[in-house]
Amino acid sequence: MTITQDLLPDDLSMGTVLLKVGDLPTMSNYYQRALGLEIIDEASDGLRLGRTNTPLIHLAPAAGLQLPAQGEAGLFHTALLFDDRSALAATVAATAQYDAGLYVGSADHLVSEAFYFTDPEGNGIELYFDKPRETWQWSADGSGQATGKTPGKSVVMDSLRLPADAYLRDHLTEAAVTGQAQARAAVGHVHLQVGDVETAGKFYVDTLGFERTAGWHGQALFVSAGGYHHHMAMNVWNSRGAGPRKDTLGLGEVLIRVTATDHVDALADRLRGAGITHHHTGSELRFNDPWNNKIRVAVG
Question: What would the pLDDT profile of 147-177 be if each residue is shown by its tens digit?
Fold first, then answer.
């Protein structure tokens, strides 16, 4: 196996997102009834919920913690990816019906179609469908330069109007509603709130080995592996200047899955070279980003 020493592998995927929650029954009810997730595992450290026996969200009880203050770093949203528009529409409809007040908006991003919500404790959620990769456009105008790396390309994204009512009218089917629990979903990407984009680039691109795929007027950074539009993103829209996080409710851990221990070892070498504290067990690696967001990279 050939390992590119300074990049994360093309076939990585995002794993279960851990959320620290104050009211486990309410949060569990929301993720089951609104998002159509099922309890896959129940243990002393909380509930793992998902689809088709794939865990997507881990709700960890943390009743003694407070909600994060406005402007703090942390989670912007967890994005759940659906295989087709009808499966997305069925979940959007169920989520909107659960509590219309938790609906935030929708957008056509050119590479995807997305709908946004918040859960009962304020954690952002994106539900989305990817358009075929052959329809994605890439710009070679130099704006795709990865921080500290050679020039690349930027994926062309936008936020165009996507009326929810029309989308549901066009794509919601009775079969998708009745088969919601059997429709596959995955954590497509995780979007974070950070203090500044430059520091995020130095950490997530230069050190971790993601490739920069897009930016947004110095306010957001999108990164990926293997030519995806983005596996992770960081923005300062609500958190510019934020320092390291306190221990609060909300994001507990971001999991990145790779397919071989060689990838974990190569990343451990990069973290060591950058002087970043980490815990390496062989098959997994744990460390914090500059804002104390906990990251775990594991094989499997």
Answer: 334 346 899 999 999 999 999 999 999 999 9
Q: How far is CA 254 from CA 13, 138, 149, 191, 288, in A?
A: 11, 28, 25, 10, 10
Query: How far is residue 81's CA from residue 78's CA, in Å, rounded to a whole number?
Result: 10
Reduced to 3 states (helix: H, G, I; strand: E, B; else coil), residue 124 is strand
Determine the Cα–Cα distance for residues 111 and 131; give it in Å rounded to an integer: 5
Q: CA-to-CA distance for 124 and 114, rounded, in angstroms? A: 13
Instruction: Quote the DSSP letter at residue 282.
Output: S
Q: What is the pLDDT of residues 237-282, one digit of tens each?
A: 999 999 999 999 999 999 999 999 999 999 999 999 999 999 999 8
**3 state SS of 52:** coil
Whole-model pTM above 0.85? yes
CA–CA distance, 123 with 35 (Å, rounded to integer)? 14
For tokens 């954590």, name the residue. 187
| Spatial CA neighbour of 23 closest among 46, 54, 56, 40 | 46
Contact indicator for 125, 119 with CB cutoff of 8 Å: yes
**pLDDT value at position 148?**
35
d(CA 44, CA 37): 19
Which amino acid, residue 174?
E
